[in-house]
Amino acid sequence: MGIKNTVESYGTIAKILHWGTAALFLAAYGSYYYRHWFTEEKTPENFSAIQVHFSIGVTIAVVVVLRVLWRMANRTPDLEPGTKLEHMAAHAGHYALYAIMIIMPITGYLGTGANTNYFFMFEIPQFQNTRIFEFVVNNTLGMTFEEFEKPIDFIHKDVFGAWIVWLLILGHILAALYHHFVKKDRTLKKMTTSKRIS
Ligand code: HEM
Ligand code: HEM
User: What is the CA 16 to chain-centroid distance, rounded?
Assistant: First the structure.
């Protein structure tokens, strides 16, 4: 299997990055809902679960940078035959997924009032305690952390976290299944088993 993408298929690196991101998204949701449903507030488990959520989110931020760089470094496989509208929807869907991969970790980090203890190995300081916060938010915008946090949290939790991310990923999965089982084309194979054809 080739490392790079070709006109016919995604290469190994793109597949690892894609399925790695999918697993990390599942884990980000899993850690949040585990905390929400199965732990009591202010217990060690509750704290650990949110720290795992932060750590996974930060990992997604790193992976998305690699992903964007890798996408720019080699070509994207051609879409399967379809109408112009289908192709436009596929491109729009992919860009929207890239957007959430960027927006979610950023809003998560900016709005969090605690340090991230990255997988319990080292600390990443919370935004509120950084020079950037002091310069941009405090001095330039003249806002306190509480004022700044509210709209950011709203985007992370209520708009994207609770709705848009789910809907986009659900639509994406349904589109992949539609291609595989209804149109019976190579869309899903390109991201899974398909061998590279140079
Ligand atoms: C792609 C990455 C991420 C995804 C998909 C994600 C997803 C979510 C979701 C679904 C929620 C709950 C929304 C609801 O209330 O229904 C949430 C809450 C939260 N997330 Fe994230 N998140 C990500 C990254 C991060 C990062 C990097 C941080 C911080 C470093 C963070 C901090 C938080 C906080 C503080 C909450 C609120 C917890 C609470 O309500 O007590 N998230 N996130
Ligand atoms: C079970 C879950 C998933 C399935 C079955 C799936 C399937 C696929 C398939 C078949 C493609 C190739 C589409 C094409 O070339 O036309 C693809 C591409 C893509 N997927 Fe997923 N995916 C899943 C989860 C995710 C998640 C969670 C994300 C991000 C949050 C994501 C983001 C993307 C992006 C951005 C592309 C475009 C890749 C590029 O051109 O750089 N996928 N996915």
Answer: 14
